Amino acid sequence: MLKTAMIFGDNMVLQRGKKIPVWGTAAPGAEVTVTIQGISASSAADAEGAFCVLLPPLETSFDETMTIAAGDESLTFTGVMVGEVWLAGGQSNMEFHMRYDADIASEKEKCAGRNIRFFDYPEVSYPEQIHEADYSKEYGFWRKPEPEQLERFSAVGWYFASELENKYNIPVGIIGCNWGGTPACAWMPEQDLIEGGGQVFLDEYKEAISKLDLEEYDRNFRNNPGSYRTDQLADPIGDKLLFGCTMEEFMGMLAQMGVDVSNLDPTAFLPAVGPKYERRPCGLYESMLKPLAPYGIRGVIWYQGETDGDTHPELYHLVFPAMIGSWRKLWGEELPFLFTQIAGLDHWMECVGEPYAKIRDAQQYTEDTVPGTGMAVTSDVGMQFDIHPKKKQPVGRRLALLAENKVYGDDVLCKAPTLLEAAISDGRAVLSFANAGDGLTLKETVPYGQVIGAETPGGLQIIQDGEELPADTFRATASGNTMVVESPAIKAGRATVVRIAKTGWHLVNLYNSNDIPARPASVAGH
């Protein structure tokens, strides 16, 4: 009868320096005692058998045994570490496994023996689903970073953890709680969604299911093998999409599988909207996030927003801050919340990148207005025709820099160069930036070996009297906190707006001294 929540097990990482809740079920009224590092704490199970023991703060350690005893029953967990624990949430770019990362081969060569552990909560779209299939072979336990296991780690989570482990010589645990293609509204409770300005999501969902035959819906869901994501890497369609393919290649693969693609709508492969649809409002908050609370964590890293760019991007500046607040309420503390600004995109499958500019603005607004947040900029790592950039190391590193500065108190440059001012004269624009560090640099190439040119200011627009100047005439140099752009098309005395990375697709090559690219920004020239 003695049982803990799924997240407790061998090789787990516990959060150091905080009280640690350990919860589960035992015989009603039983006294439950938890012991680790020679420290014990106890609590009685309630009338339904639920217990929660609160351990005092623990010191950093690399190999502990935890015992949990209740009467004649006991549990023992070995290989337990005490260090830093972060929850990695979001959609597919956070879920994105090391299997698909551009640098997986080199990481496999050096991953063994690292003090990093990864727990991935199963992707279940309603609470009862966790009992309807066997998720235990691939999910719900703590992984070690052995070469044969590394491909199942979140790539962003892995690189983030690697930076912290290397710098602080501490164990790092990453808890994966994410699902590709999901909107922010799926990850928050109904009342917070309503108060946060997201009533339209509830209204649209209610309308979508108003005439649904629930018995038929449920029967179709149960009979669809894709409804039970017991091994995400075994899905050939998802595997192909994440490795990277065009619409033509995708359709070709379906044709080889025997699917008639002559009049096929690609959205036909999406799950049907209904009570078990993972994108429905508030669903994943109940089925995936709540079972993890209140496990001791330092904070959250988050990568999401593309799906909201496809549906109501104008509301993201309201819904996203409200979602952050709901997570903090669930844990009962003002958790640090570090997130990734979504990368540039032209188009991919049915996704069009232009609305994502609104999402980036909303993400910047969130960093500016919500205390305890930080935003990692990715204006240099997007892929023009793939929504899943394949190099996640820069993302993980930039999130780690935010943690080092904002959470661990180190004096490191963690913010992106930010356009502050544009001084316009004939043939020249002098652009001034904050967060330059020891000086700005224009790079010849950016990740993936994409060549821009050391004198070409990537992602820059100069608009005068409402007309955009031809970017192919720009020549630029950077030093200190300024970038000087020269072009015969630039004229003094005109109404001028200067923009960086404000389009759906862009590729920025202006960096500060800590290798962080300029963030999306816009100023009026003078």
Q: How would you sum up the global shape?
A: globular
Biggest sheet architecture: 11 strands, mixed
Helix/strand class: alpha+beta
The chain-level mean pLDDT equals 95
CATH architecture descriptor of the domain at 418-524: Sandwich
CATH topology of the domain at 418-524: Immunoglobulin-like
What CATH first level of the domain at 418-524 would be assigned? Mainly Beta
Distance between the termini: 73 Å
**Approximate helicity band:** 10-25%
What are the low-pLDDT stretches, counting only 5+ consecutive residues below 50? none
Beta strands, count: 28
Provide a short characterization of the protein structure.
This protein is an alpha+beta fold and 526 residues long. The chain is built from 13 helices and 28 strands.
Overall description:
- It is a single chain.
- A hairpin with a 2-residue loop joins strand 14 (347-348) and strand 15.
- The longest helix has 16 residues, at 316-331.
- Helices cover 24% and strands 26% of the residues.
- It is α+β, with helices and mostly antiparallel strands and 526 residues long.
- The model has no long low-confidence stretch (mean pLDDT 95).
Provide keyphrases for this structure.
about 525 residues, alpha+beta, Immunoglobulin-like, 11-stranded mixed beta sheet, 4-stranded antiparallel beta sheet, about 25% helix, globular
Summarize the topology.
Layout: E1 3-4, E2 13-15, E3 20-25, E4 31-36, E5 39-44, E6 50-55, E7 61-70, E8 73-90, H1 92-95, H2 104-110, E9 116-120, E10 142-143, H3 155-168, E11 172-178, H4 190-195, H5 199-208, H6 214-223, H7 236-243, H8 247-256, H9 283-289, E12 299-303, H10 306-310, H11 316-331, E13 337-340, E14 347-348, E15 351-352, H12 356-369, E16 373-376, H13 393-407, E17 418-425, E18 428-434, E19 441-442, E20 445-446, E21 450-451, E22 460-464, E23 467-468, E24 475-479, E25 482-486, E26 496-500, E27 510-511, E28 521-524
Parallel strand pairs: 2-8, 8-11, 8-12, 9-11, 12-13, 13-16
Antiparallel strand pairs: 1-3, 3-6, 4-5, 4-7, 7-8, 9-10, 14-15, 17-18, 18-25, 19-27, 20-21, 22-23, 22-26, 24-25, 26-28
Helix pairs in contact: 3-13, 11-12
